[in-house]
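Whether sequence alone determines local backbone shape is best considered at the level of individual chains. Part of our work consisted of pairing the sequence of a single chain with a tokenised description of its backbone. This step matters because it turns folding into a mapping between discrete strings. For completeness, the protein is quoted in full, as a sequence line and a line of structure tokens:

_____
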Amino acid sequence: MSKEAQDERIKEAVREAYGGIAQQVDGSGQRASCCGPGQRSSCCGPAADSAEVVLLDEPLPSSRFYSDDELAGLPETVTGASLGCGNPIAIAGLQPGEVVLDLGSGGGIDCFLAARQVGPEGRVIGLDMTPDMIKLARRNAHKLGVTNVDFRFGEMEEMPLADGSVDVIISNCVINLSPDKEAVFREAYRVLRPGGRVSISDIVVDGDLPQAIRGRLDAWAGCIAGALDEGVYLNLMRAAGFERIEVVSRDYAEVEGAEAAQMLAEDGDGAAEALLAETGLTPQALAHRIASIKVRAYKAG
């Protein structure tokens, strides 16, 4: 299979998983998970093999990353579709009047929080490649009466925005889902104005992952298989032109170790466990290599 075909296969698996989440959240008003039975309600763990969407009796994932003041007034069709691994708004330093782009905007939670900070003179653009998420986000905007947010359909590897058209880019646990992160960072640099900045929450790994995991589509949709080594991730940002790159936080505790271990335990032919055994790693040791980070960087002014 060609790289182009494989990349499209990955995108379709991700689109299917998150489209299912959007449909359930929008239809029931209840939170959903892309992580499959027994998993916590966040994108940051392995998804069910069939991209099955299930309801979980757990605290909303949004409450782990956002303050009560931030969540105040947001309906569950917003908070229930919050599938990130952090809060990029917390390190973005948004100012009134700025134009903000959210990569992988989902149900819109980060867009709506950004809209409050940039005010009516500012503007927020939410970009997502899943039609059902775009529909959900637009309905949420109407429900909230938010008029300075524009949700657009498109892929972050080829952003439908003009050169130098935004001040700030935010993204929450989405860039790891792209099979072509080099293109994502290149496009991010292109659409930023001189002196613009990015504020990203994402999943990275310390080292590499076994190919048995890298090749699993459910693990791609679950934010694991696409995660790069942190050094590789930051080097891609540098290669795109970003400067003053800073890892603001790194938290291994935000990714449950049991999730990676369960993925390996459920591997039918034992290929993943066998490969780990060759490297001397246990499933738990692998899990401890996965981290949620917050990164800030700038485009030269």
Remarks:
- The longest helix spans residues 3-28.
